[in-house]
Amino acid sequence: MPELPEVEVIKNMIKPYLEKKIISYAIVRNKKLKYLIPRNIVNIHNQKILNIKRRGRYIIIILLYNSIIIHLGMTGNLFIIEKDMLSYGKHDHIDLIMDNNIILRYTDSRKFGFWLWETKNYKDNIFLKKLGPEPLKNEFNSKYLYKFTKKKNIPIKILLMDNCIVTGIGNIYASESLFLSKILPTRISKTLNFKEINILVKNIKYILNKSIKYGGSSIKDYRQPNRKIGNFHKLLFVYGKQNKLCKICCTKIIKIKQRNRSTFFCSKCQI
Ligand SMILES: [Zn+2]
Asked: Could you tell me the distance, in angstroms and rounded to a whole number, from the CA of residue 268 to the centre of ligand 1?
């Protein structure tokens, strides 16, 4: 599932092709993603894109009076393609045909992604409204996170993946930032002291920024809008590395399940 860095890379790459350009019309080959594609998107006609933004794992296309909110689900990808590439595949569900010889194509093999039609006040959207702060913004800081961790009886990794507390951190970046911070993912949140939270917050920001710089992690389906893979997965320490040796201490990386999601850690480096 694309996490914050992957969605940020996608947003940054599609932006120059779409901003201030006109969506001539849409081709919707499959209306049934996680939710039905709204009729306003199916019938869109000559609408200018003012801006492209990201909030958490959502991409927002801002139009003059409305906005389109896109969630990539598990396997969704957005591609920029030339208009003369008329062929399409089984999983290419939506094309936004632009007036500048460009198509924004949405591809999603498992169809857990969705597109929503919203007013211009996209921040009031039911999904976006409940999101916690962006981890790369100043409002996400040690003081803020400690306020939650000091009273929570749940493992720290579960807390980090709660989008209402901080948005956009999933399995990969929760596992990796806990490794860098030498904190076990199973540690009960309230046992972490302020110093540990301080280190954790710094590492979360560090690792997200670094992944964006490397074009995100292409573990399974994620591709950049130019179909190239991201390169950050080559730098991972623990995620997906079960039974491999820890790059720091040569102990075998362990994989466990936490709330049905895989968690990876080094039992020697992390306490
Ligand atoms: Zn280790």
From this structure: 5
